[in-house]
């Protein structure tokens, strides 16, 4: 063996490994720094009033995020109920029926565009076709915008998970005379249910912290309201507005809201990984 070549390769490997570890350490340091600041300032805002009182008026003391929490919860739950069946059924169509269909090709192309499109573009689109037509902001408009963001994630995940199901399982069901629609819903979908649930949870995690679409659709509401046909308070927009304000209690509430969303998204991602590990 040529010793000089071996030493040169070893030296290059050591340099590459050093920079790789350094980049990983730098990324972890920044991430832990952000989490430390968020935890230290966010937990300080957590008390009973944070979850029981509505957002305070400008210049007033106290207050909480009850109206924003309820508004976000209502819109995210509504978004999940709308986007899940649409995304799952579309994913089944693409995986099981769309191999030679032109509609499937167009659907995949549009899905890829929506996955890469900025969320503010989705918000402007819903503003143009919904808010501008009815002449007012509403929780339903926000739900539509969030659903348009969630459907492509669920669709793509469902299609990929269904394609991982062995073809022998389909062939065995067909050999017993089972119709294709029943094979898809009762056998293939059940075999891939963990992956599909993972896609739903990841979609919910994505839309939970979206601010831009809600600025153009649901806007905000200082008062507690469960009427989805009117402007509705939500955590992302309240955090955005409060973080830029000159009032100290508003800034503290913004830190608390940011921590609440972070813990929620973290919990959903952990839950999704648990389901994915079970599937593996």
Short synopsis of the structure:
The chain is mainly α. It contains twelve helices and no strands.
Q: Which value, in Å, is the CA radius of gyration?
A: 24 Å
> What proportion of the residues is helical, as a percent range?
over 70%
Multimeric status of the protein: single chain
- Within CATH, the superfamily of the largest domain carries the name MetI-like
CATH class of the largest domain: Mainly Alpha
Helix/strand class:
mainly alpha
Distance between the termini: 43 Å
Order of helices and strands: HHHHHHHHHHHH
Major sheet details? none
Total domains, how many?
Answer: 2
Quote the average pLDDT: 90
* CATH-derived architecture of the largest domain: Orthogonal Bundle
Shape: globular
Beta-strand content: under 5%
Number of helices: 12
Q: What is the β-strand count? A: 0
**Low-pLDDT residue intervals, each spanning 5 or more residues:** none
């Amino acid at each position: 063996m040529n010793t000089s070549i071996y030493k040169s390769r070893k030296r290059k490997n050591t340099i590459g490994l050093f920079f790789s570890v350094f980049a990983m350490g730098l990324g972890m340091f920044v991430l832990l720094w952000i989490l430390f600041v968020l935890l230290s300032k966010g937990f300080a805002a957590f008390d009973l009033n944070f979850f029981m009182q509505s957002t305070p008026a400008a210049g007033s003391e106290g207050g909480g995020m009850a109206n924003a929490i309820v508004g976000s919860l209502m819109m995210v739950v509504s978004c999940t109920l709308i986007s899940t069946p649409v995304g799952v059924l579309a994913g089944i169509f693409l995986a099981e029926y769309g191999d030679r269909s032109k509609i499937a090709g167009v659907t995949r192309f549009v899905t890829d565009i929506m996955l890469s499109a900025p969320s503010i573009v989705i918000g402007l689109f819903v503003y143009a076709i919904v808010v501008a037509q009815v002449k007012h902001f509403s929780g339903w408009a926000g739900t539509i915008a969030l659903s348009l963001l969630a459907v492509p994630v669920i669709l793509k995940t469902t299609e990929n998970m269904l394609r991982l199901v062995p073809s022998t399982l389909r062939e065995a069901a067909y050999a017993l005379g089972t119709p294709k629609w029943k094979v898809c819903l009762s056998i293939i979908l059940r075999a891939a249910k963990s992956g599909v649930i993972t896609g739903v949870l990841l979609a919910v995690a994505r839309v939970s912290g979206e601010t831009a679409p809600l600025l153009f659709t649901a806007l905000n509401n200082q008062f507690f309201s469960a009427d989805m046909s009117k402007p509705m308070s939500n955590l992302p927009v309240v955090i955005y507005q409060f973080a830029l304000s000159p009032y100290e209690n508003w800034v503290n509430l913004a830190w608390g809201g940011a921590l609440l969303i972070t813990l929620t998204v973290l919990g959903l991602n952990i839950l999704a990984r648990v389901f994915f590990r079970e599937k593996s």
